[in-house]
Design a protein that fits this description.
The protein has about 180 residues and is mainly beta. Helix content is about 0%, strand content about 45%. It contains no helices and 16 strands. The chain has a five-stranded antiparallel β-sheet with strand order 4-3-2-7-8, with no helix packed on it. A four-stranded antiparallel β-sheet has the order 9-10-13-16, with no helix packed on it.
Length: about 180
Amino acid sequence: QAGDTAVHICSYYLDSHNLYSLKWYKEHHEFYRYTPNEKPPVKVFPLTGMKINMTASDHVRVVLESVSTKLTGTYLCEVTVTPTFFALAETANMTVIDFPAEGPVINVERKQFQVGETAHVTFIPEHPKLLQTKDGPPDTPVSGVRPICTSQSCLRFNVTMILIIYNFVLYRSQNCLR
């Protein structure tokens, strides 16, 4: 989640080899290098908005503080050993989500429904771009995604099941009506 700390761990087994270097990349940009035989052993090349915790990062992990959605992407760990200078790499994806401070404002015509009735619901999202569908134009804030709504949406659906959890009533629907 945005603002949290992300710990990336690169596990490796050296066997009879020695560690020459450990490198971290986001996409194709190297941002952290640990080379134990160099002085200093750590070099950083952070991306814009990337805050590396140098105290917590070492030859196995890199710790990113206060992550933002800009740090979403593919990360690669590359380990090179001596005397062969053989390198192994592994990738993983990280998705940083910026949740809204509050949920959407939801309005219903009444507080209770019976199974089979049609519910009419309006809601105003806190962050409209969280409500998205694929196949949008590439110039939208999230590439390849377009928002469903920008201010208020209306839903109508047939109630097929009612579930009560901690005084919240959730209505399940199989079909959305226009």
